């Protein structure tokens, strides 16, 4: 497993590409938007420079990492030699299924197809391909280069060989992994969405300010980041899609907070728009 293709160059895609290239994989990054690819390349170059200046990596690793990366809007070129394809697009099932059908036609028969979903079913996605045994979910966390975990989620038909190969890839990326049998929300998203949704409900009810809710969770329960800060980082539109999926599949306790729905309708999506539960410059 030496050649990795990453589909989608947004926050998660560029982070996955960065970590994979830094750890010796040849990485092809694909997106339909050339501007997004350019931003991803700039981000990776900037993060490499920062990491070197802080002593996390050696100076020579900057050039070797960049040499491992290519960026293209041509999907077929990006995936033709891939051992592993990691999809990192929006959390929309119809979009993921569309991409996986294309990948199934374009990739070698032995290529493993992974989705970086935080909630959705690799079984459902894999069933739309001719290789459900080679379809799996790899749930990375934001920011990818700092977060230590990958949740590896096996679909109903995912083979043990596929899991073991993906686990080895995770280890080569210097990540810890956990093995999960598919169920909506997996482990972290089910817990995280409940905590975040309850924090939003408390804010809506006037229990405390956003700052004090987050402070209580950080200092009282030793969370590294407050649930409202984290929602702003993830993106409130992304969080709402996650909540809606969990509500549809797991029931009433995952009903999205009305305040979250209101913020998304207002275009207050968190850090990426400069406004969410907090204001950002």
Automatic annotation (TrEMBL):
<dbReference type="GO" id="GO:0006631">
    <property type="term" value="P:fatty acid metabolic process"/>
</dbReference>
<feature type="binding site">
    <location>
        <position position="31"/>
    </location>
    <ligand>
        <name>NAD(+)</name>
    </ligand>
</feature>
<feature type="binding site">
    <location>
        <position position="118"/>
    </location>
    <ligand>
        <name>NAD(+)</name>
    </ligand>
</feature>
<feature type="binding site">
    <location>
        <begin position="8"/>
        <end position="13"/>
    </location>
    <ligand>
        <name>NAD(+)</name>
    </ligand>
</feature>
<feature type="binding site">
    <location>
        <position position="96"/>
    </location>
    <ligand>
        <name>NAD(+)</name>
    </ligand>
</feature>
<comment type="pathway">
    <text>Lipid metabolism; butanoate metabolism.</text>
</comment>
<dbReference type="InterPro" id="IPR036291">
    <property type="entry name" value="NAD(P)-bd_dom_sf"/>
</dbReference>
<dbReference type="InterPro" id="IPR008927">
    <property type="entry name" value="6-PGluconate_DH-like_C_sf"/>
</dbReference>
<feature type="binding site">
    <location>
        <position position="91"/>
    </location>
    <ligand>
        <name>NAD(+)</name>
    </ligand>
</feature>
<dbReference type="InterPro" id="IPR006176">
    <property type="entry name" value="3-OHacyl-CoA_DH_NAD-bd"/>
</dbReference>
<feature type="binding site">
    <location>
        <position position="142"/>
    </location>
    <ligand>
        <name>NAD(+)</name>
    </ligand>
</feature>
<keyword id="KW-0520">NAD</keyword>
<dbReference type="InterPro" id="IPR006108">
    <property type="entry name" value="3HC_DH_C"/>
</dbReference>
<protein>
    <submittedName>
        <fullName>3-hydroxybutyryl-CoA dehydrogenase</fullName>
    </submittedName>
</protein>
<dbReference type="GO" id="GO:0070403">
    <property type="term" value="F:NAD+ binding"/>
</dbReference>
<keyword id="KW-0560">Oxidoreductase</keyword>
<comment type="similarity">
    <text>Belongs to the 3-hydroxyacyl-CoA dehydrogenase family.</text>
</comment>
<dbReference type="Pfam" id="PF00725">
    <property type="entry name" value="3HCDH"/>
</dbReference>
<feature type="domain" description="3-hydroxyacyl-CoA dehydrogenase NAD binding">
    <location>
        <begin position="3"/>
        <end position="182"/>
    </location>
</feature>
<feature type="binding site">
    <location>
        <position position="272"/>
    </location>
    <ligand>
        <name>NAD(+)</name>
    </ligand>
</feature>
<dbReference type="GO" id="GO:0016616">
    <property type="term" value="F:oxidoreductase activity, acting on the CH-OH group of donors, NAD or NADP as acceptor"/>
</dbReference>
<dbReference type="InterPro" id="IPR013328">
    <property type="entry name" value="6PGD_dom2"/>
</dbReference>
<feature type="site" description="Important for catalytic activity">
    <location>
        <position position="139"/>
    </location>
</feature>
<dbReference type="Pfam" id="PF02737">
    <property type="entry name" value="3HCDH_N"/>
</dbReference>
<dbReference type="InterPro" id="IPR022694">
    <property type="entry name" value="3-OHacyl-CoA_DH"/>
</dbReference>
<feature type="domain" description="3-hydroxyacyl-CoA dehydrogenase C-terminal">
    <location>
        <begin position="185"/>
        <end position="280"/>
    </location>
</feature>
């Amino acid at each position: 497993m030496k050649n990795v293709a990453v589909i989608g160059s947004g926050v998660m895609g560029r982070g996955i590409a960065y970590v994979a290239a830094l750890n010796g994989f040849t990485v092809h990054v694909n997106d339909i938007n050339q501007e997004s690819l350019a931003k991803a390349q700039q981000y990776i170059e900037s993060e490499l420079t920062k990491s070197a200046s802080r002593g996390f990596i050696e100076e020579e690793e900057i050039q070797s990492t960049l040499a491992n990366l290519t960026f293209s809007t041509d999907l077929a070129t990006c995936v033709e030699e891939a051992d592993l394809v990691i999809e990192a697009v929006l959390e929309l099932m119809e979009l993921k299924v569309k991409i996986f059908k294309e990948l199934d036609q374009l990739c070698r028969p032995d290529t493993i197809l992974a989705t970086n979903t935080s909630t959705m079913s690799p079984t459902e996605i894999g069933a739309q391909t001719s290789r459900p045994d080679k379809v799996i979910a790899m749930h990375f966390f934001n920011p990818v280069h700092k977060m230590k975990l990958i949740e590896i989620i096996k679909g109903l038909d995912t083979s043990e060989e596929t899991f073991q190969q993906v686990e080895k890839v995770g280890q080569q990326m210097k990540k810890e992994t956990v093995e999960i049998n598919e169920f909506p929300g997996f482990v972290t998203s089910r817990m995280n969405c409940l905590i975040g949704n309850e924090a939003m409900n408390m804010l809506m009810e006037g229990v405390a300010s956003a700052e004090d809710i987050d402070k209580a969770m950080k200092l009282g329960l030793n969370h590294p980041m407050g649930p409202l800060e984290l929602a702003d980082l993830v993106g409130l539109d992304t969080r709402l899609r996650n909540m809606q999926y969990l509500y549809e599949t797991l029931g009433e306790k995952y009903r999205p907070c009305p305040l979250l729905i209101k913020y998304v309708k207002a275009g207050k999506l968190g850090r990426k728009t400069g406004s969410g539960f907090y204001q950002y410059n």
